[in-house]
Amino acid sequence: MLNLSSDERRTLRARAHSLHPVVSISQSGLSESVVREINANLASHGLIKIRVYDDDRQAREQYLTSLCERLDAAPVQHIGKLLVIWRPQPDDQAQGARHRFVRRAEPRRSKRSFQGGSDR
């Protein structure tokens, strides 16, 4: 299991905010096909959200721990029934650039309001 610093985790949580869950874990639990699907999505996206359809918080925590250990990933967030995990993509590992996911924020641009008038 990978370990992240609090700054890395905060950056990843911010990036994950706009993501939709790509995999769901149903009442059947963590089957091999679900693990393969999560592995494939981690390989292509690096940062993913997983929806768990289980009301037991302890079970969701166990899913998160188990997935991170089996797939060599880092737990980013567990909020409600959503799990967020991250694993560096293969090209990041080849270059040894673990912090590649950190992006600089773009400066905010002011919104121009339409100054009314007629088009005559």
TrEMBL record:
Q: Does the keyword RNA-binding apply?
A: yes
The region called Disordered is annotated at: 95-120
Keyword NAD listed? The answer is no
What SUPFAM superfamilies does this protein's entry cite? YhbY-like
In terms of superkingdom, the source organism counts as: Bacteria
Alphabetized, the UniProt keywords read: RNA-binding
CRM domain ranges (all copies) = 2-98
Name this protein carries in UniProt: CRM domain-containing protein
PANTHER family membership:
RNA-BINDING PROTEIN YHBY
* Molecular function GO terms recorded: RNA binding
Pfam families referenced in this protein's UniProt entry, alphabetically? CRS1_YhbY
